[in-house]
Amino acid sequence: MDLNHALITVLVDIWRPETHSFHLPHGEMTITLQDMEVIMGVPVDGLLVVGYTQKDNWGELCNDLLRHRPLNKEVGGNKNTVVMEGLRVKAKWLEKRFSNPFPTDTIKVLVQQHVQFYILGMFGGMVFMDKFGEQVSIMYLQFFNPISNGKNYSWGSAVLSWLYRHLCKALEKTTKQIGGALLLV
C-alpha cells in the first residue's frame, strides 16, 4: 500500500498534541484503539508492552533468539561494518541474514528464528517504524522469548502511543521525517 505523503503532511499540520487529535473544519478526529484492532488486526487486550530497555548487551539477546550477533563497533576503522547502535540494528543486516528460504525439514529452532525475524521486520518496518526506516529496534524481541509470549501483550496500545509520539514530534520545526504506523494516518 502506498502512503499519500502530501495528505500525511496536511494531517500533521492539523494535529494537536494536547488532545492527540486532528482538528478538522467539521470537528475533532483521532485514531483509537478500536482503529488499531479493526484496521491493523493488532490485539488491544493483554499485558502492557513495558520492560527493561537499559539492557547492557542487546547483541546478546539478538544472538540468543536469532542466532546472529550484530557488530556494534567498527572493524578496522570501517563505519560500514557497524550494524548495531544501542538497541537498533540495520534492517539490511537482518534481511541479509534471513532472506534465504529454508528446506521443509528444517528444525523447530530455525523456524522460530525466522518467525522472530519476520515479526521484528514487521514491527520495525510497519508498526514501530523509525523516521528513516533503516534501523529496527530489537527491544521487542524480549517479549517473544519464548515466542508464544507475544500473544499475551496489548500491542495495539503500544503502537498507538508510538504513533502519537511521532505525530507530536513531527510538529517540531526541525523535524523533516515522521515515523510510526502511518497506515493509520
Description of the structure:
The protein is mainly α. The chain folds into 2 domains: 78 residues, no CATH class; 103 residues, no CATH class. The protein has 6 helices and 6 strands; from the N terminus they run H-E-E-E-H-H-E-E-H-H-E-H. Helix 4 packs antiparallel against helix 5. The longest helix is centred in the middle third of the chain and has 20 residues. The mean pLDDT is 80.
Rg result: 18 Å
What is the terminal-to-terminal distance? 13 Å
Number of helices, counting only DSSP H or I runs of 4 residues or more: 6
**Largest sheet, if any?**
3 strands, antiparallel
SSE series: HEEEHHEEHHEH
Low-confidence stretches: none
- What is the count of distinct domains? 2
Share in helix: 25-40%
**DSSP, total strands:** 6
Overall mean confidence score, pLDDT: 80
Measured by DSSP, the beta-strand proportion falls in 5-15%
Which sequence of strands runs across the widest sheet?
1-2-3
- Large-scale geometry: globular
Structural category: mainly alpha
